[in-house]
């Protein structure tokens, strides 16, 4: 079954509600390996219930529609799907516990051509259920490697943010654990690509890979460490492009360039030297 452009573009999603407490907030941060230095008080703020704060990237895992592309009616070859890009705009701080509502929609599908895959763009708006306030807008692009040439209308892919042509201003290393993907998936992304070696092998990976959204959260931790005093409330917009998988246990090395309130960044696997995230842009709060 192939993608049908109009059907997928107009797919209806139910509003998703999520009630969460401090344990969910801590579990999300632990999935990013926050707390790997238990004596670091900056890290402790996100993994200890006293004066607990939620990381802003937690917005991407709250009240989502789940791994919906696994539904055969989408026409997507989900085994070959990879997370291509992710962005989040924070309108109000994410509470450390509470109830939220997520509203998801498909915004565009770009047919790159036979053998070249397709891009599936979607958006999730996250609301505080009690107050109705818009907390965050999440933008996601999935790279559907097995679905190019389905006959979609001609569309151009979004233009990525450019990285400055100079040496990085700052570099931050962030370790992951061999079991990081197994911890992170408990925040709601149960794609077996990140847990089952058989599924990973079927997708031509030697072993399960780290969730793109886990790498995404770690990249923001690098910017927080370098420019925000490890305060997530000082970043209100954060986006990047995924360029290669991260394997659990690797160190993610975030390279950053600051120009005014804009931090450009990319990240690589320190062990392999491979760039795993690029075209990153973070906007800092004055």
Structural features, described:
This protein is an alpha+beta fold. The chain has a single domain (5-284), classed as Thiol Ester Dehydrase, Chain A. It has six helices and ten strands; from the N terminus they run αβααβββββαααββββ. The chain has helices spanning 5-9, 22-31, 41-44, 180-184, 197-202, 212-227, and strands spanning 16-20, 81-90, 98-111, 118-128, 134-144, 170-175, 235-242, 251-259, 262-269, 275-284. Strands 1-3-4-5-2-7-10-9-8-6 form a ten-stranded antiparallel beta sheet. Strand 3 and strand 4 (118-128) form a beta hairpin. The radius of gyration is 18 Å and the shape is globular. The mean pLDDT is 94.
Gyration radius from CA atoms, angstroms? 18 Å
What's the CATH class label?
Answer: Alpha Beta
- In total, the number of domains comes to 1
Backbone structural class:
alpha+beta
The name of the CATH architecture is Roll
Classify the fold: give the CATH topology: Thiol Ester Dehydrase, Chain A
In round numbers, the mean pLDDT is 94
Determine the oligomeric state from the structure. single chain
Shape descriptor reads globular
Say how many strands there are. Answer: 10
Straight-line distance between termini: 49 Å
Looking at this structure, what is the CATH superfamily? Hotdog Thioesterase
Give, in order, the helices and strands. HEHHEEEEEHHHEEEE
Strands ordered across the widest β-sheet: 1-3-4-5-2-7-10-9-8-6
Strand content: 25-35%
What's the total helix number? 6
Low-confidence stretches: none
Residue share in helix:
10-25%
Largest sheet: 10 strands, antiparallel
């Amino acid at each position: 079954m192939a993608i049908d452009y109009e059907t997928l573009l107009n797919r209806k999603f139910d509003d998703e509600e999520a009630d969460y407490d401090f344990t969910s907030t801590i579990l999300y941060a632990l999935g990013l390996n926050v707390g790997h230095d238990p004596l670091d008080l900056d890290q402790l703020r996100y993994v200890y219930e006293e004066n607990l704060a939620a990381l802003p990237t937690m917005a991407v895992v709250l009240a989502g529609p789940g791994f919906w592309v696994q539904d055969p009616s989408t026409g997507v070859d989900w085994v070959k799907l990879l997370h291509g890009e992710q962005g989040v705009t924070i309108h109000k701080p994410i509470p450390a516990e509470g109830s939220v509502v997520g509203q998801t929609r498909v915004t565009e599908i770009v047919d790159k051509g036979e053998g070249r895959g397709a891009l599936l763009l979607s958006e999730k708006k996250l609301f505080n259920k009690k107050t109705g306030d818009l907390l965050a807008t999440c933008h996601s692009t999935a790279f559907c490697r097995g679905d190019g040439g389905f006959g979609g209308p001609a569309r151009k892919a979004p233009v990525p943010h450019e990285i400055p042509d100079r040496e990085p201003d700052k570099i931050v290393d962030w370790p992951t654990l061999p079991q990081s993907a197994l911890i992170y998936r408990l925040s709601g992304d149960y794609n077996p690509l990140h847990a089952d070696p058989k599924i990973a092998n079927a997708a031509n990976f030697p072993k399960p890979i780290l969730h793109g959204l886990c790498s995404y959260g770690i990249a923001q931790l690098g910017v927080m460490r370098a420019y925000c005093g490890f305060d997530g409330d000082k970043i209100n917009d954060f986006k990047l492009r995924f360029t290669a998988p991260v394997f659990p246990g690797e160190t993610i090395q975030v390279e950053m360039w600051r120009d005014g309130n804009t931090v450009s960044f990319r990240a690589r696997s320190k062990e392999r030297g491979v760039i795993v995230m690029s075209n990153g842009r973070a906007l800092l709060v004055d």
